Amino acid sequence: MKFCIIGSRGHIGYVFQSIGKVPGITLDGISSGCEDDPAPLLRSSENAGFTPELYSDWRQMLNRLSPDLVAVDGPFEKHAEMAAYALERGIHVFCEKPIALTLPDLDRIMAARKRSGARIISMVGLRYQADFQYALQLVRSGAVGKVKMVRAQKSYRLGTRPEYYRRRETYGGTIPWVGSHAVDWIMAFAGSAFRQVYATQTAEDNFGYGDLEIACQCMFVMKNGVQGQASIDFLRPAAAPSHGDDRVRVAGTEGILEVIDGKVILIDKDGRRELPVPPPERELFSDFANSLTGKCRCAVTESETFELTRACLLARESADTGKVIEF
Amino acid sequence: MKFCIIGSRGHIGYVFQSIGKVPGITLDGISSGCEDDPAPLLRSSENAGFTPELYSDWRQMLNRLSPDLVAVDGPFEKHAEMAAYALERGIHVFCEKPIALTLPDLDRIMAARKRSGARIISMVGLRYQADFQYALQLVRSGAVGKVKMVRAQKSYRLGTRPEYYRRRETYGGTIPWVGSHAVDWIMAFAGSAFRQVYATQTAEDNFGYGDLEIACQCMFVMKNGVQGQASIDFLRPAAAPSHGDDRVRVAGTEGILEVIDGKVILIDKDGRRELPVPPPERELFSDFANSLTGKCRCAVTESETFELTRACLLARESADTGKVIEF
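Above: the input entities. Below: the structure tokens describing the complete assembly.
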């Protein structure tokens, strides 16, 4: 399997975490996809045992090398252009989320996908994190009965971020960028597509970060009636014990399950207890790459990738316009 | 101070918790205010050292005894009628929340209050619970900087409830009944009145409880821009370690403070730590009763009582109609 990488602005680390578990893969070309220095990407590639060709022009790379698979992690506002370009050439795409910063860009990818035999998923790698993976397995096997509510939290340190986080056009907004994980968990734990969203956000008191929304909240109703809530912020203090405080709470007719501080806690007819989290057996990138050759199934699907991206963009639109939006 | 009680359907326990701290108070009359058996109320009164007269007609009781203060805890749908009747006679009112189940009923109380020298507050006693009281004190003294988000949770066991919980007309709905505490915390921690609300709710899978909403969620924006979120449910399993799982999370520009499992946890520039909660020095009923004679200030005010009731009723209206509502 011939493989290329464009860019390393986001979660390209997922690739290097599990590229060793993809039999026969070769990393043939890399490009930063923009003016970014490609040196860090080159180092990561070499550390993983590859010596890819370096391209300044990502289109040229795809056309010359004709890879089977490309990871897209360039400028956020170019995800859609890069993904559509690859799909149109029959190249599978492992794409940083959100895969598009606007609805027309999402439509562009979906149109390209329709004409292509290639597939695309987004890098919602937290689905594969041990605690969330296990929690989802429990909920799907009925641990809380019929799910009624899902509440998700993403709280990040702001830290120091590159210039492109300051402008909506190049950043996309905090609901799509940070919130996509929370929205993905709501979709996964509810086991349903979205029916409706209302959201609010604020860029006030954002420590001089331009358009960047410092705090957001979303409320969903799913097609199956489950109510979903997301709380998203960059207010986690620098001195906090970790970068992010990721949480999910799933309440159903027979129990309540939570992921908090890396722990999975269940309350059901047998009372409250912490369930030991088994080590994760699988990883996102290797699962996707191996699924392309029929070797396994991937926990993140194409239809979820499209549904999630649309949900994030509509939630942002709701917050921008103050309107309840039906899907 | 002459004192009477009407009913014991809700939190009349607050009265007996601290009536001993009100110098000179006498409990002169009680009435169940409806067909309820007054025996439990009579027993509580006797246990507290009082021998009140028992009335079947609460109006007659108020007119004959002319108390200074009455606690209203009769049928939920009669709070407003009873409170307005008392205020019109210059009797102060300690009223179960929500003080009204409809906006016209709230207006009726506010009109009676305008013509009266007497005051009314609602029994949002959780404000006085040690952990929340301390957390509020910390936030008001700047522990998290400028508050940006408040998230509150009320999760209760459903248990077995009287018939009047099954009908909207006699119950009022889960957002006002259970949610009022969460909405009160949002108001208190945000330090602001409400600007806007959107809410959802469901009565599906409610274990045969008629109209009773089993799960609800509310999203507020406050007048000062703070974003507030409430999650309210009756899904806490019977085998859970306590009746309720009350929580608040307050995120600000300089820290994040949480009340969870009775603990107060702060993350700020000095890292994450649990703060020991001092024992509560004051209680709601005695504070209110003593404030009437100028002996102290009460942490729950009249304007907050009205604002909170309106917020709960508008949140319910939003969930009923699917519309965003401006205050």
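Note for the figure: The mean pLDDT of chain B is 97.
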